[in-house]
Write a structure and sequence with these properties.
about 350 residues, alpha/beta, UDP-N-acetylmuramoyl-L-alanine:D-glutamate ligase, nine-stranded mixed beta sheet, 10 helices
Length: about 350
Protein backbone atom coordinates (compact mmCIF):
# COMPACT_ATOMS: atom_id res chain seq x y z
CA UNK A 1 0.00 0.00 0.00
CA UNK A 2 1.38 3.40 -0.93
CA UNK A 3 0.96 6.73 0.86
CA UNK A 4 -1.81 7.92 -1.46
CA UNK A 5 -3.96 4.81 -0.97
CA UNK A 6 -3.42 4.83 2.79
CA UNK A 7 -4.52 8.47 2.97
CA UNK A 8 -7.51 7.94 0.68
CA UNK A 9 -8.80 5.03 2.76
CA UNK A 10 -8.23 6.47 6.23
CA UNK A 11 -9.55 9.94 5.29
CA UNK A 12 -12.98 8.33 4.84
CA UNK A 13 -13.17 7.03 8.41
CA UNK A 14 -14.36 10.34 9.83
CA UNK A 15 -17.51 10.28 7.68
CA UNK A 16 -18.51 6.72 8.55
CA UNK A 17 -21.49 5.55 10.59
CA UNK A 18 -20.87 2.12 12.12
CA UNK A 19 -23.09 0.11 14.48
CA UNK A 20 -21.52 -2.36 16.90
CA UNK A 21 -24.09 -4.96 17.96
CA UNK A 22 -22.95 -7.30 20.67
CA UNK A 23 -21.93 -8.11 24.21
CA UNK A 24 -20.52 -4.98 25.80
CA UNK A 25 -18.77 -5.56 29.07
CA UNK A 26 -16.88 -3.56 31.66
CA UNK A 27 -13.14 -4.19 31.80
CA UNK A 28 -12.29 -3.24 35.39
CA UNK A 29 -8.60 -3.16 36.25
CA UNK A 30 -7.50 -3.33 39.89
CA UNK A 31 -3.91 -2.11 40.14
CA UNK A 32 -2.14 -3.71 43.10
CA UNK A 33 1.04 -2.41 44.74
CA UNK A 34 2.92 -5.49 46.07
CA UNK A 35 4.97 -3.25 48.39
CA UNK A 36 1.78 -2.60 50.36
CA UNK A 37 0.92 -6.26 50.90
CA UNK A 38 -0.49 -7.11 54.34
CA UNK A 39 -1.65 -10.23 56.14
CA UNK A 40 -5.31 -10.44 57.15
CA UNK A 41 -5.75 -10.69 60.91
CA UNK A 42 -9.00 -12.61 60.39
CA UNK A 43 -7.85 -15.19 57.85
CA UNK A 44 -4.06 -15.14 57.96
CA UNK A 45 -4.01 -14.79 54.17
CA UNK A 46 -2.20 -12.11 52.13
CA UNK A 47 -4.10 -8.88 51.46
CA UNK A 48 -3.56 -7.23 48.06
CA UNK A 49 -3.93 -3.48 48.39
CA UNK A 50 -5.50 -1.85 45.34
CA UNK A 51 -3.99 1.59 44.71
CA UNK A 52 -5.89 2.42 41.52
CA UNK A 53 -9.08 1.28 39.78
CA UNK A 54 -9.70 1.98 36.13
CA UNK A 55 -12.45 0.89 33.79
CA UNK A 56 -12.93 0.76 30.04
CA UNK A 57 -15.41 -0.76 27.62
CA UNK A 58 -14.61 -4.42 26.93
CA UNK A 59 -16.05 -7.21 24.79
CA UNK A 60 -17.85 -5.46 21.94
CA UNK A 61 -16.60 -2.30 23.65
CA UNK A 62 -13.06 -3.19 22.59
CA UNK A 63 -14.18 -2.97 18.96
CA UNK A 64 -15.80 0.37 19.77
CA UNK A 65 -12.56 1.58 21.39
CA UNK A 66 -10.71 0.77 18.17
CA UNK A 67 -13.30 2.56 16.02
CA UNK A 68 -12.88 5.63 18.23
CA UNK A 69 -9.08 5.40 17.92
CA UNK A 70 -9.46 5.27 14.11
CA UNK A 71 -11.54 8.46 14.16
CA UNK A 72 -14.81 6.93 12.94
CA UNK A 73 -17.31 9.78 12.88
CA UNK A 74 -20.43 8.13 14.28
CA UNK A 75 -20.56 4.91 16.30
CA UNK A 76 -23.73 3.23 17.56
CA UNK A 77 -23.22 0.67 20.36
CA UNK A 78 -26.20 -1.70 20.43
CA UNK A 79 -26.53 -3.76 23.59
CA UNK A 80 -27.43 -3.75 27.27
CA UNK A 81 -26.06 -3.61 30.79
CA UNK A 82 -27.59 -4.18 34.21
CA UNK A 83 -29.00 -1.56 36.55
CA UNK A 84 -26.10 -2.30 38.91
CA UNK A 85 -22.99 -0.31 39.77
CA UNK A 86 -21.01 -1.96 37.00
CA UNK A 87 -23.70 -0.92 34.52
CA UNK A 88 -23.45 2.68 35.72
CA UNK A 89 -19.68 2.52 35.27
CA UNK A 90 -19.94 0.93 31.81
CA UNK A 91 -22.29 3.66 30.62
CA UNK A 92 -19.94 6.29 32.06
CA UNK A 93 -16.87 4.97 30.22
CA UNK A 94 -18.87 4.66 26.99
CA UNK A 95 -19.97 8.29 27.29
CA UNK A 96 -16.36 9.27 27.93
CA UNK A 97 -15.45 8.01 24.46
CA UNK A 98 -16.76 11.26 23.01
CA UNK A 99 -19.61 12.86 21.11
CA UNK A 100 -19.25 10.46 18.21
CA UNK A 101 -20.51 7.56 20.34
CA UNK A 102 -24.33 7.61 20.40
CA UNK A 103 -25.88 5.69 23.29
CA UNK A 104 -29.54 5.83 22.29
CA UNK A 105 -29.38 2.11 21.33
CA UNK A 106 -27.57 1.01 24.50
CA UNK A 107 -29.77 0.51 27.55
CA UNK A 108 -29.81 -0.69 31.15
CA UNK A 109 -32.23 -3.37 32.28
CA UNK A 110 -32.94 -4.96 35.64
CA UNK A 111 -33.36 -8.30 33.82
CA UNK A 112 -29.59 -8.62 33.18
CA UNK A 113 -26.35 -8.35 35.12
CA UNK A 114 -23.61 -6.19 33.66
CA UNK A 115 -21.07 -8.41 31.94
CA UNK A 116 -17.80 -7.62 33.77
CA UNK A 117 -14.20 -8.75 33.51
CA UNK A 118 -12.47 -7.76 36.77
CA UNK A 119 -8.69 -7.96 36.25
CA UNK A 120 -6.34 -7.66 39.25
CA UNK A 121 -2.88 -6.49 38.12
CA UNK A 122 0.39 -6.46 40.04
CA UNK A 123 2.12 -3.18 39.17
CA UNK A 124 5.85 -2.84 39.80
CA UNK A 125 8.21 -0.14 38.53
CA UNK A 126 10.27 -1.26 35.56
CA UNK A 127 8.30 -4.47 35.02
CA UNK A 128 5.32 -5.35 32.83
CA UNK A 129 2.02 -5.76 34.70
CA UNK A 130 1.22 -9.25 35.97
CA UNK A 131 -2.44 -10.27 35.79
CA UNK A 132 -3.81 -12.42 38.61
CA UNK A 133 -6.87 -14.69 38.36
CA UNK A 134 -9.72 -12.79 36.73
CA UNK A 135 -13.11 -12.32 38.41
CA UNK A 136 -16.00 -12.44 35.92
CA UNK A 137 -19.66 -11.50 36.21
CA UNK A 138 -21.89 -12.97 33.48
CA UNK A 139 -25.48 -13.88 32.72
CA UNK A 140 -26.27 -17.59 32.80
CA UNK A 141 -30.01 -17.49 32.06
CA UNK A 142 -31.41 -16.82 28.56
CA UNK A 143 -31.88 -13.23 27.48
CA UNK A 144 -35.58 -12.31 27.96
CA UNK A 145 -37.48 -11.82 24.73
CA UNK A 146 -38.45 -8.29 25.73
CA UNK A 147 -34.75 -7.39 25.95
CA UNK A 148 -33.98 -9.14 22.65
CA UNK A 149 -36.90 -7.27 21.10
CA UNK A 150 -35.34 -3.92 21.94
CA UNK A 151 -32.10 -5.06 20.31
CA UNK A 152 -34.00 -6.12 17.20
CA UNK A 153 -35.73 -2.74 16.96
CA UNK A 154 -32.34 -1.03 17.03
CA UNK A 155 -30.83 -3.38 14.45
CA UNK A 156 -33.72 -2.75 12.06
CA UNK A 157 -33.32 1.02 12.41
CA UNK A 158 -29.54 1.10 12.10
CA UNK A 159 -29.49 -1.22 9.10
CA UNK A 160 -31.10 1.69 7.24
CA UNK A 161 -28.79 4.35 8.67
CA UNK A 162 -25.31 2.86 9.13
CA UNK A 163 -22.57 2.19 6.58
CA UNK A 164 -21.70 -1.08 8.28
CA UNK A 165 -22.82 -3.39 11.07
CA UNK A 166 -20.46 -5.38 13.29
CA UNK A 167 -21.78 -8.39 15.22
CA UNK A 168 -19.80 -9.65 18.21
CA UNK A 169 -20.95 -12.68 20.17
CA UNK A 170 -18.79 -12.74 23.34
CA UNK A 171 -20.78 -14.93 25.73
CA UNK A 172 -19.89 -18.52 26.62
CA UNK A 173 -23.47 -19.85 26.76
CA UNK A 174 -25.79 -19.50 23.78
CA UNK A 175 -28.83 -17.22 24.07
CA UNK A 176 -27.52 -15.42 27.19
CA UNK A 177 -26.19 -12.34 25.42
CA UNK A 178 -27.11 -9.82 22.73
CA UNK A 179 -26.63 -12.03 19.66
CA UNK A 180 -29.55 -14.38 20.14
CA UNK A 181 -31.12 -16.65 17.54
CA UNK A 182 -33.93 -14.15 16.99
CA UNK A 183 -31.42 -11.34 16.36
CA UNK A 184 -29.50 -13.51 13.87
CA UNK A 185 -32.74 -14.39 12.08
CA UNK A 186 -33.50 -10.71 11.76
CA UNK A 187 -30.01 -9.97 10.40
CA UNK A 188 -30.47 -12.74 7.83
CA UNK A 189 -33.72 -11.13 6.67
CA UNK A 190 -32.09 -7.69 6.49
CA UNK A 191 -29.13 -8.82 4.37
CA UNK A 192 -31.42 -10.85 2.12
CA UNK A 193 -33.31 -7.62 1.40
CA UNK A 194 -30.14 -5.51 1.11
CA UNK A 195 -27.22 -7.66 -0.08
CA UNK A 196 -24.98 -4.58 -0.37
CA UNK A 197 -25.08 -3.90 3.38
CA UNK A 198 -21.67 -4.55 4.93
CA UNK A 199 -22.01 -6.84 7.95
CA UNK A 200 -19.02 -8.49 9.64
CA UNK A 201 -19.54 -11.14 12.34
CA UNK A 202 -17.28 -12.67 14.98
CA UNK A 203 -18.12 -15.14 17.76
CA UNK A 204 -15.93 -16.67 20.42
CA UNK A 205 -18.09 -19.84 20.27
CA UNK A 206 -17.73 -20.15 16.52
CA UNK A 207 -19.83 -18.88 13.61
CA UNK A 208 -21.89 -21.97 12.84
CA UNK A 209 -25.49 -20.95 12.18
CA UNK A 210 -24.67 -17.30 11.40
CA UNK A 211 -26.39 -15.74 8.38
CA UNK A 212 -24.70 -14.99 5.06
CA UNK A 213 -22.55 -12.07 6.18
CA UNK A 214 -18.79 -11.56 6.21
CA UNK A 215 -17.10 -13.82 8.75
CA UNK A 216 -13.97 -13.18 10.82
CA UNK A 217 -12.47 -16.00 12.89
CA UNK A 218 -9.24 -17.47 14.22
CA UNK A 219 -7.65 -20.76 13.21
CA UNK A 220 -9.37 -22.83 15.92
CA UNK A 221 -12.78 -21.38 14.99
CA UNK A 222 -12.10 -22.17 11.33
CA UNK A 223 -11.40 -25.77 12.30
CA UNK A 224 -14.67 -25.98 14.24
CA UNK A 225 -16.68 -24.45 11.41
CA UNK A 226 -15.15 -26.33 8.48
CA UNK A 227 -14.05 -29.56 10.15
CA UNK A 228 -10.46 -29.25 8.89
CA UNK A 229 -7.33 -29.60 11.02
CA UNK A 230 -6.21 -26.34 12.59
CA UNK A 231 -2.48 -26.92 12.16
CA UNK A 232 -2.26 -26.63 8.38
CA UNK A 233 0.22 -24.34 6.65
CA UNK A 234 -1.05 -21.07 5.08
CA UNK A 235 -0.85 -22.34 1.48
CA UNK A 236 -3.23 -25.20 2.34
CA UNK A 237 -5.45 -23.00 4.51
CA UNK A 238 -5.89 -20.55 1.63
CA UNK A 239 -7.70 -23.27 -0.31
CA UNK A 240 -9.92 -24.13 2.67
CA UNK A 241 -10.81 -20.48 3.30
CA UNK A 242 -11.45 -19.78 -0.39
CA UNK A 243 -13.87 -22.72 -0.54
CA UNK A 244 -15.65 -21.50 2.61
CA UNK A 245 -16.03 -17.98 1.17
CA UNK A 246 -17.46 -19.42 -2.02
CA UNK A 247 -19.94 -21.60 -0.13
CA UNK A 248 -20.91 -18.80 2.26
CA UNK A 249 -21.14 -16.25 -0.59
CA UNK A 250 -19.34 -13.61 1.47
CA UNK A 251 -15.80 -12.67 2.45
CA UNK A 252 -14.09 -14.82 5.07
CA UNK A 253 -11.15 -13.64 7.18
CA UNK A 254 -8.99 -15.90 9.34
CA UNK A 255 -6.28 -14.80 11.77
CA UNK A 256 -3.30 -17.14 12.13
CA UNK A 257 -1.38 -15.53 15.03
CA UNK A 258 2.34 -15.35 14.13
CA UNK A 259 1.58 -16.61 10.60
CA UNK A 260 -0.48 -13.54 9.75
CA UNK A 261 -3.93 -13.40 8.22
CA UNK A 262 -5.81 -14.81 5.23
CA UNK A 263 -8.83 -13.32 3.50
CA UNK A 264 -10.94 -14.67 0.66
CA UNK A 265 -13.85 -13.42 -1.42
CA UNK A 266 -16.68 -15.55 -2.88
CA UNK A 267 -15.35 -14.78 -6.38
CA UNK A 268 -12.11 -16.63 -5.72
CA UNK A 269 -9.71 -13.86 -4.68
CA UNK A 270 -7.44 -14.99 -1.82
CA UNK A 271 -4.72 -13.05 -0.01
CA UNK A 272 -2.28 -13.99 2.74
CA UNK A 273 -0.61 -11.14 4.65
CA UNK A 274 2.24 -12.13 6.98
CA UNK A 275 2.31 -10.89 10.56
CA UNK A 276 4.54 -7.97 11.48
CA UNK A 277 7.68 -8.90 13.48
CA UNK A 278 7.39 -9.00 17.26
CA UNK A 279 9.13 -6.04 18.90
CA UNK A 280 9.51 -7.13 22.53
CA UNK A 281 7.00 -8.47 25.06
CA UNK A 282 3.44 -8.95 23.86
CA UNK A 283 -0.10 -9.42 25.18
CA UNK A 284 -2.52 -10.81 22.58
CA UNK A 285 -5.70 -9.67 24.40
CA UNK A 286 -7.76 -7.41 22.13
CA UNK A 287 -5.87 -8.15 18.92
CA UNK A 288 -8.83 -9.92 17.31
CA UNK A 289 -11.16 -7.03 18.07
CA UNK A 290 -8.68 -4.58 16.55
CA UNK A 291 -8.67 -6.75 13.42
CA UNK A 292 -12.48 -6.69 13.29
CA UNK A 293 -12.64 -2.90 13.62
CA UNK A 294 -9.98 -2.28 10.99
CA UNK A 295 -11.34 -4.78 8.48
CA UNK A 296 -14.77 -3.17 8.72
CA UNK A 297 -13.49 0.38 8.34
CA UNK A 298 -11.17 -0.48 5.48
CA UNK A 299 -13.82 -2.40 3.53
CA UNK A 300 -16.42 0.31 4.12
CA UNK A 301 -13.89 2.86 2.83
CA UNK A 302 -13.42 0.95 -0.42
CA UNK A 303 -10.13 -0.80 0.34
CA UNK A 304 -9.18 -3.89 -1.60
CA UNK A 305 -8.99 -7.28 0.07
CA UNK A 306 -5.22 -7.04 0.48
CA UNK A 307 -5.31 -3.43 1.69
CA UNK A 308 -7.90 -4.39 4.31
CA UNK A 309 -5.72 -7.25 5.54
CA UNK A 310 -2.64 -5.03 5.68
CA UNK A 311 -4.38 -2.45 7.85
CA UNK A 312 -5.88 -5.12 10.11
CA UNK A 313 -2.54 -6.89 10.49
CA UNK A 314 -0.84 -3.62 11.42
CA UNK A 315 -3.55 -2.91 14.00
CA UNK A 316 -3.05 -6.32 15.60
CA UNK A 317 0.68 -5.68 15.80
CA UNK A 318 0.16 -2.33 17.51
CA UNK A 319 -2.28 -3.78 20.04
CA UNK A 320 -0.26 -6.83 21.11
CA UNK A 321 2.61 -4.57 22.15
CA UNK A 322 0.41 -2.70 24.66
CA UNK A 323 0.77 -4.42 28.03
CA UNK A 324 -1.59 -4.32 31.02
CA UNK A 325 -4.55 -3.08 29.00
CA UNK A 326 -6.76 -4.06 26.07
CA UNK A 327 -5.23 -1.73 23.52
CA UNK A 328 -6.20 0.10 20.37
CA UNK A 329 -4.50 1.28 17.18
CA UNK A 330 -4.78 4.80 15.80
CA UNK A 331 -4.35 5.89 12.18
CA UNK A 332 -0.97 7.44 12.99
CA UNK A 333 0.22 4.17 14.57
CA UNK A 334 -0.98 2.22 11.54
CA UNK A 335 0.85 4.62 9.23
CA UNK A 336 4.17 3.97 10.98
CA UNK A 337 3.92 0.24 10.26
CA UNK A 338 2.11 0.10 6.92
CA UNK A 339 4.25 2.78 5.26
CA UNK A 340 7.57 1.88 6.91
Amino acid sequence: MNVERFQTITDRFGRMRIAVIGDFCLDRYLEIDPAKEEVSIETGRPVHNVVNVRGQPGGAGTILNNLVALGVGTIFPVGFCGTDGEGFELQRVLRAKGAGVHLNHFFATDQRHTFTYCKPLIIQDGQPPTELNRLDTKNWAPTPQAVAGRIMDSVAKLAREADALILLDQVDVRETGVITKSVLTQVAEIVAGDPSLLVLADSRRGLKGFPRVMLKMNRAELSTLSGVAKDGDPSWLKKVIAKLAQQHEHNVFVTLAELGMIGATPTGEVEHVPAFPVRGEIDIVGAGDAVTANLTCALAAGATLRESLELASAAASVVIHQLGTTGTASVSQLRELVLA
